[in-house]
Amino acid sequence: MATNPVKITDTTFRDGHQSLLATRLRLEDMEPVASQMDKIGFHSMEVWGGATFDATTRFLAEDPWERLRRFRELIPNTPLSMLLRGQSLVGYRNYADDVVGEFVKRSAENGIDIFRVFDALNDEWNLTCAAESVKSSGKHLQMAICYSVTESGRMGGPIYNLEYFVKKAKQFESMGADSLCIKDMAGLLAPYDAFDLISELKRQVSVPLQLHTHYTSGMASMTALKAIEAGVDIVDAALAPLALRTSQPAVEPLVVSLTGGNRDTGIDLNRLLEVGDYFESMLPKYNHHMASPRFAVIDARVLSHQIPGGMASNLNSQLREADAIDKLSEVLEEIPETRKDLGYPPLVTPISQMVGSQAVSNVLFGRYKMISDQVKEYVFGMYGRAPSKVNPEVISAALSGYDKGSHPISERPADHIKPEIETAKAAVSDITDDIDDVLIYALYPTTGMKFLRIKHGLDPVPEEMKADLADKPNNLSTLTGLSRPEKSASVRAFNVFIDDSYFKVEVDPTDGSSFTTAGVSSNERNNTSPEKSELSPGNGTLSSPMPGILLHYIVEVGQRVEVGDPIAVLEAMKMENTLPSPIGGTVESLSVEPGAIVVKGEVLAIISPQ
Ligand code: CO
To answer: Could you tell me the distance, in angstroms and rounded to a whole number, from the CA of residue 263 to the centre of ligand 1?
Structure first.
């Protein structure tokens, strides 16, 4: 009998499919094996939170609360855990304290036992409200420390060294954490660093320690084993069909590796294999959600530049859209510089996206000539405190003329957010007064409202949200009686933005003609050549510096503006960018319909110097 068995948290129902299948696994495909999973003897099952809340409402027309309640029914014996992004809950911005309190309370009441709470910046300001809410609900508070590296790829250096992690661990323990988790979202934790880190934490803190890591770089199984040797209490793993690649290490080989030793998990391999067989035969219909067509199951490049896989592929498509793929190596060199300027934030969503897009802008238009609204918010302090000092020059560039103020705030960001629950209640009062529904709206006003209208029968379930069609795209051609043609060399890819959703659509002319991007945008819109599209002042033409969607104008025709005054907001690279007036004068024309897709160089406004 093992004296100190390793406990396993199974992530198959949350991070497993979030990592590998864009969070698209439907409840109906998990229900058949849920009670079998319950009998395996996992320490806990992570089944909710993270992106599952967003994906169920946005893509699957599925009520996330109902999913949780169903799991609770089917899994009565194993503690259920969720991932909570601190003050951002399961969304992408900080919410007001009343939303945080209510969300945690309802999650607990609907079935969550263990709350894993983290903040992308490891800033306790963003954790206090969620932590207190978990404590007052009487549930288990696990506080997670995001693992990151400074530059070399190994633990150490000026920021992410052993002292940093020990300090955070002690701080989180003093905030009432019932356990701590090292959350290595990018798979950067190297095996011997894990050994040193866990060994030291075991000496310095008394609550149980858990390791959450991703296979992305290929080190995760070795890292887990070294962490186990160092005494880690709990390890996250997924069933083999949803393990490896960018997901967690597989549970089966871990169980066998530890068999017979002092840290034997006691889990029966055959039970794992049975459930694994179910997934192996069920999952092929989700194949088209598999993120990577690569041969390698690991991304060895992460080991050299520490850039998470998802971020790297985003960069690739952003540069391709901006017709600047030749700048990729420059951008890869710029990323560590931008990250340093911003105070070394861990490269985790949504900050990885922010840093990546800013690095692209820095290379394309000059350093900090164009700064996204999200980076301005970050510099202003609304995401919390950066791990290290933000470059003062970047602060003044970002906050000069910033509408919220020219000096960063020095208190908890949520102190600047007014209560939101009552407004949300009022906004949905025609449809529902259910608090769980209200929370869906409070988290995502646009997609949440769409979901609530579907849920309450005011709108039909859109075709693309239905299981049959969404999960079997090849049936579309079968249904229409057409065989699927081969793609020709003329195929062009377009990004289609609908509210806050985005699709990539490939268009191939059927008459064999080829067309160019310039040909797609009509000449009536005075499409200028890309050379004129830079952010250089001079003439009164404001053109789009890159492809995107024109969200809205800030000015009206006939209005007087000074040089640098905000004219329009462009969404590009998933960031919002406020575009300034190139000259002082009068707004003569605003030529694009808000919401329209614009190409690089497209004229957005003309300012006449008079
Ligand atoms: Co994860």
So the answer is: 24
Q: What share of the chain is helix, strand, coil (3-state, %, to 5)?
A: 40, 15, 40
CA–centroid distance, 186 to ligand 1, in Å, is 8
Distance 587 CA to ligand 1 centre (A): 48
The DSSP code sequence of 177-198 is -SEEEEEETTS---HHHHHHHH
Number of domains in the chain: 4
Considering the domain architecture, whether residues 284 and 402 belong to the same structural domain is answered as no
Nearest to 117 by CA among 78, 156, 143: 143
Whether residue 441 lies inside any domain: the answer is no
Residue 527 or residue 335, greater confidence: 335
Residues 312 and 368 in one domain: yes
3-state secondary structure of 495: strand
Spatial distance between the Cα atoms of 111 and 81, rounded to a whole number of angstroms: 9
**Is a pLDDT exceeding 60 seen at residue 478?**
no
Per the domain annotation, does 565 fall within a domain? yes
Q: 222 and 285 share a domain? A: yes
445: part of which helix (H) or strand (E)? helix 445-455
Quote the ligand 1 centre to 302 CA distance (angstroms): 16
Q: 89 and 214: one domain?
A: yes
Domain limit, last residue, from 289, 318, 352: 289
Tokens of 180: 């701590």
What does the block give as tokens for 145? 């420390």
Question: 553 alpha carbon to ligand 1 midpoint, in Å?
Answer: 38
79 and 207 fall within a common domain: yes
Domain boundary among 289, 321, 336: 289
CA of 418 to the centre of ligand 1 (A): 31
Q: How far is the CA of 184 from the centre of ligand 1 (A)?
A: 7
Segments forming the whole domain that contains residue 329: 307-410
- Determine the Cα–Cα distance for residues 106 and 116; give it in Å rounded to an integer: 16
CA–centroid distance, 384 to ligand 1, in Å, is 21
431 in any annotated domain: no
- Domain for residue 595, yes or no? yes
Here the contacts of 160-169 (C-beta below 8 Å, separation 24 or greater) are 160/344, 160/387, 162/196, 162/197, 162/200, 164/387, 165/197, 165/200, 165/201, 166/200, 166/201, 166/204, 168/122, 169/145, 169/201, 169/204, 169/205
Q: Are 53 and 190 in a shared domain?
A: yes
Instruction: Please give the mean pLDDT across all residues of the chain.
Output: 89
Helix axes 392-399, 373-380, angle to 10 degrees: 120
CA of 115 to the centre of ligand 1 (A): 14
pLDDT at 472 over 80: no
- Whether 335 and 281 share a structural domain: no
Domain containing residue 399: CATH number: 1.10.472
Centroid of ligand 1 to alpha carbon of 90 (angstroms): 13
Q: pLDDT tens digit string along 182-241?
A: 999 989 999 999 999 999 999 999 999 999 999 999 999 999 999 999 999 999 999 999
CB neighbours of 310 closer than 8 A, spacing ≥ 6?
Answer: 246, 291, 349, 352
| Cα 49 to ligand 1 centroid, rounded to whole Å | 11
The residue written with tokens 């967003």 in the block is 54
Do residue 227 and residue 351 come from a single domain? Answer: no
Sorting pLDDT into bands at 50, 70 and 90, what band is 490? low
pLDDT per position as a tens digit, 434-452? 999 999 999 999 999 999 9
CA 271 vs CA 30, 32, 37, 393, 474: distances in Å: 16, 15, 8, 58, 34
Q: How far is the CA of 400 from the centre of ligand 1 (A)?
A: 37
